[in-house]
Amino acid sequence: MSSPSAVAEAVGAAPDPRPRRAFRVPRPGYLVTKLAAAAVSFGVTLVIGFVLFNVMPSDPVRTMTRGRPVSEAQLAALRVQLGLDKPIWERFFDYVGNTLHGNLGYSWEYQQSVASLTLSRVGPTLLLMGTSFAISVVLGLWLGMRSGWRAGSLFDRVTSSTALTLWSVPTFWLGMILLIVFSVGIGPIHGFLPTAGMSDPTLPQTGMTHYLDVARHLVLPALTMVLVVYAQYVTIMRSSIIEEKGSPYLLTARAKGLTDDAVRRRHALPNAMLPSVTMIFMHLGGLISGAVTVEAIFSWPGLGDLTYQALTIPDLPVLQGTFIVFSASVIIMNLLADLAYRVLDPRVRAQ
User: Scanning 94, 140, 204, 316, which has the fewest C-beta atoms within 10 Å of its C-beta?
Assistant: First the structure.
């Protein structure tokens, strides 16, 4: 049996000129440029982190000992112990060297290394943020695609107005409202979801009972994040779909006899996804940092709650360490987004 291209040549028609989409390894020059830009961004982050938490016009020693009867000699000894008596330039080079070697400092409040403290809080944050991220992406992209494809319909008006309303609501306010309604209860409505924490310490900490308990505690913080984040995907995907609807290639696809669903799914959606890729990777970078407000409201034992607790002390090594971790995760995800764009968008590959 002859191939389609051979048949096309036999009847005098040109073969299908459409290039096949394939994975291409980025050129070394492009990769080196992006890696260098990421390294520069991380260097700037180190400088900003040091300035924020070491050159602030405050005395952390007096803050730590506030309300306690301490002498000036004790304050001076504590400054020496914490390394605050060194010149600012020496502290900066110590800070950069320690960070590059994975040493994020030692917590003043928790009396353990910031690296181990951070690692112990990563799991709960990834559980909360990963769950809310997955639901937000799937729900937001699906609603945005449907809304944009039927722009002006009742479905579009309801979906768009709801998304814009939720996007404008402050996260902490929404979290407190959900906490009052579903945990505390209003009037005859009695709260049936946990108010705080990740699990009930009175229940077994292993087995299916524990997993179900964690799932119950996860509902409200994850719901708060989903209601705020999914709206961003709805808005961006809707705008992208509306922009793609008028493209000539969609008219060509319809002229070939493709159904409306096939045109939307196979042609419009892949191109409309490109703006959403950047936001997906940005939110992936935020998975590590979590949401400080949500974790603080629901006392979820993640990195966001750790940051909030460190702010109230203040525990400068913890704040400095979490700032570096949060920033590094965003830089890495931005780098991956640039590489993904080169694979997905032929216009970037042509550069």
Answer: 204
